[in-house]
Amino acid sequence: MRLLIVSTKQRIANYNEFIKALNSFRVEAICVHDVKYCFLSEFRPLHIVPFPRVLNLIRQFNPDFVMTDDPHHISRMVKLTHRPMFLHLRGGMWGENCWDKAMYPSLFVRMYSHYLEAIRASNIKKADLILPNSKWLKKRVKQHLPNHPTKVLYVGINSGNWVPNHNPTFNLKHPAVVAVFPFSIYAKVSGLLKFAKVVRKMPDVNFYFAGNGPYFNLIKQNCPSNMLLMGRISRLEVKQLLQTGDVFVHPAGSDALPRSVKEASLMEKPIIASNVGGIPEIIKNGQTGYLCNINENDQWIEKIRFLLDNPDVARKFGKNAREYVMKTFDWRKIAKGFLKIFKDFTG
Fold first, then answer.
1. What is the pTM of this model?
2. For residue 41, is pLDDT > 50?
3. What would you report as the CA-atom Rg of the chain, rounded to the nearest whole angstrom?
4. 280 cis-preceded (ω within 30 degrees of 0)
5. How crowded is residue 284: how many other Cβ atoms within 10 Å of its Cβ?
6. What domains does the chain contain, in order, with CATH numbers?
7. SS3 127
8. DSSP assignment string, 31-52
9. Torsion on CA atoms 330, 335, 337, 340, rounded to nearest 10
10. pLDDT above 70 covers what percent of the chain?
């Protein structure tokens, strides 16, 4: 069996872990990432990079089936390979951000983004099998494509890359609540805007948010004095931030399956997160952390206070969180599940 994965350069490291796991089951797999790049700008909305090297690679590898995480690639890869096409869906679809002025200030770019979203929504129907990355996202797919073959395929994580050593290495003021948050999708950021009210009501606690994106300035404008926006930090600094913080929070308005929650779990941090999207699939409420309603400020304050005041419980939650994520999101387990999906698909 041969699998060709078509992804982005940013995600190829993830899929390399997936490929290693598949190799252990004697499945040949490769990942390419330079099939097509799209650049949005005022004057040059689309630029396609030639890909003769990729085309030659596809011909030499001769895959049995193809998987991509970008619907843009589906039509092109179907024509190139004439093989069954799987779509690994890792986030929302159907035009959620294309008209947003913070993401695309220019009206022309927003219109073109809307056009690209329409293409993605059309291409997704051409996939032979859709693989959402959470049960919650599967339900969303079924709302739009009720009769399309759909199976859940989680995104794994290598626990060996996230090992806690419990030696503070980041200069934080304690008590410290930390987060690694995406500022690029408004559906997620809307939760953080509401969470700012929680921060204001806890002036004796320091909140540190790492991350960057188009909505960074929007949050900065509504940022209390005890809420520090750190901007983009390196992977090493993310590890240091997680191991130094006392509690990890993820106050998202919506999220399919946040990688940062898995990373914090592996670093044995007690977690408090929004009870939305696919987040409940990562957190066992009352065992590895707490799930809170994003609109109930008092609930967030109560849970944060409790974990800060009860370090023994916080440590127990952290250890439970690491065990749960290692058991549920190990790449070898993900690969084994994928092979079962493929077996069921081919009959």
1. 0.89
2. no
3. 21
4. no
5. 15
6. 2-156+330-346 (3.40.50.2000), 159-328 (3.40.50.2000)
7. coil
8. EE--S------SS----PPP-H
9. -160
10. 90
